[in-house]
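Quick one:
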Amino acid sequence: MKGFKMTPNYSRVSAAHGRPTSSWLPVLFVVFFCVPAMAQPLAYVPNQGETSVAAIDTATRTVVATVEIGLRPFGGAVTPDGTRAYIPASDGRCSALVVIDTSTNTVSGSVPVDSPPWQVAITPDNSIVYATSPFTNSVFVIDRSSNTVVATVPVGTRPFGVAIAPDGAFAYATNQDSNTVSVIDTATYRVVASIEVGMTPNGIAVSPRGDRLYVTNLGSDCVSVIKAKHHRVIDCVPVGASPFNVALTPDGDFAYVTNGGGTTVSVIKTKRNTVVALVEAGARPSGIAITPDGSTAYVSNINSAGVSVIDTASNTVVQTIRVGVSPSWVAMSPF
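Output:
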């Protein structure tokens, strides 16, 4: 049985009395215990200076595949079922979301769009992909069953980051030149609220419970904390220079923020909204994702062509993985 470890259970018995003996006799019954082989999450890193995406096995912390996609990739997200990675990409003439089959690490399709997409997020039920389009000031809505654009939602000016609420009810898009976050009702594909945040909002993450949003403000050097239910900013946590992206641990206790204007990652204790650690990563850290077990954070460093692996227990870099040119993002598979 492929993918399972079989362990026979042997018994030593006396032929005459059924009692244990010191010699092995032929086995009459063999019981097999099947233990599933546990797959480890893959981290997908778009190499923005090339036309490829690196796939990193988080168990061995090695690049196991480099997927050529033919366009320059910008961001990415893995579907909640772990079967596909959607990579926004463009070459100036052609723009698309390239689809990677995660079981083979090969391109399985693409979704043509009218303008370069920057970041993507996928609904928890795997059905819909949201992709920001900064040059059209909109968000593309893509039906995964047909891999076609089914709606285009006007938002603020120059949208960049996008995230989905855990219950799938809302999508949130950061608008860099409007200094706002657009709240999109996923049932109607309409903007139902606009939240003012700091200057040049970029990355965004939603807490596991869906009650808080965390937004990095490139121009304000802080992270806006938003109470999702009331669409209201309740804090702005000072971090490093030009915070680019943010990721939360699975328990929601910590937010990790890449400071793109330097070489560090700020660690925020979400209960107190205070920075409790500063981790030295690589040059110009940008993308970040945390493994499903919360043990490590993967940080792409645009100016050093490497991915820093941070141990979240000690908040130290335990390894640097060489990838392609200008790694811009990290998309983590859910298992």
